[in-house]
Amino acid sequence: MRTRPGLSTSRDGGLTPRERVLLALDHRETDRTPVDLLATPETFARLRTHLGAADNEEALERLGIDLRHPRQPYAGPPLQRHADGSWTDAWGVRRIAAPHAGGAYDEIVAHPLAHVHDAAELEDYPWPRAEWWDAAGLAAEIRALDERGAYAIALEEFGDPGGIFEIAWYLRGMEQFLVDLIENPDLPCEIMRRVTDFYVAMAERVMAAAGDRIDLIWTSDDIAHQRGRLISERVWRDTIAPHHRRLNRRVHDLGGRVMYHSCGAVRPFIPGLIEIGIDVLDVLQFSADGMDPREIKRSFGDVISFHGGMDVQTTLPHENEEGVRRAARDCIDALGKGGGYILSPTHNIQVDTPPANVVAMYAEAGSAVEARWRA
Q1: Fewer CB atoms < 10 Å away: N or C end of the chain?
Q2: DSSP readout, 215-259?
């Protein structure tokens, strides 16, 4: 691991956002709990209006958000657009925007490997290449962020939209992929090997371009739902975990930390996630079965950090501001003692969340000082 920066002070005499995050990830208490924000574009638009902010970056500044999530510009072959409004992404997965009351989400309409029968057939598939994304452009965006503040940098591209397991089933189709794991494991394991090759190559490129400023590589795979597991722990350990272990090892070798996202009831998987090198667990969906924040902190808080905890299904959209403050305080009290916690929503905050509730969450954490943005 690379040497972490020493402590310095921000313009107001306190810790910089990046120092606050790195101290927390080293399991040390800080001046306040670090905070992060994930939100849909529609939610950001409402926040900008509420805060009187000119752009998303100004909204993040007014809320005191400690992390930023820059992205590499796509610079590969043009992505195909279709007459029905759908498009084919860089993996060859066809998607279309599915409208809802507050905006739209991308939905998969075609799985390009659905009809493959044997792993040998994968040799001729047009797999994406890491150089299709502009690592130098990412480094330039980080430099632009550094001109505004010393923020911690977390890269989402290693799990958005989908990690090793998820990209693999996007290609194959979820039901068929789960059947393959039992009946024909060579095929899904070869798909995941190739996806992992891609992510390892991308990690090497981004760390070569900006490794001294990248604090977290954000990986992802939803392996649970709200009432239990999508797959058994045995199948996960035998077929999926080895690929994550290889990627995590390479990220660590390059000097980075790994944050891993899974929604749902992941408590049974946490020991295995620690074994394969996860440094930070996201999203901590405490409404899911078996997800007791105090038990999880007590059992694992000395060896892993946490990111998330603020419920986007009920608390943020439906509680009043005082209820949101209570929920934020409960997360901080349960998970923040001794460091190792970043307060964040459990997913992208949806457009049905009142902007005042978003402000209340960060005000309780001590990052959004109302006078700072009301002035």
Answers
A1: C
A2: -EEEEE---EETTEESS-HHHIIIIIHHHHHHHHHHHHHTT-EEE
> Is residue 10 domain-resident?
no
Give domain status of residue 7, yes or no. no
pLDDT mean by block of 10 residues, the chain; 375 residues: 43 83 97 97 97 97 97 96 97 95 92 96 97 97 97 90 95 97 97 98 97 97 96 97 98 98 98 98 96 98 98 98 98 97 97 97 86 42
CA distance 67 to 74: 22
**Radius of gyration (C-alpha) of the chain in whole angstroms:** 20
In a domain, 194, yes or no: yes
The 10s digit of each residue's pLDDT in 17-52 is 999 999 999 999 999 999 999 999 999 999 999 999
Query: For the whole prediction, is pTM greater than 0.85?
Result: yes
Whether residue 340 is contained in a domain is answered as yes
Q: Could you tell me the CATH number of the domain that includes residue 159?
A: 3.20.20.210
Quote the number of domains for the chain: 1
Q: What is the DSSP string of 142-170?
A: HHHHHTT---EEEEEEETTT--HHHHHHH
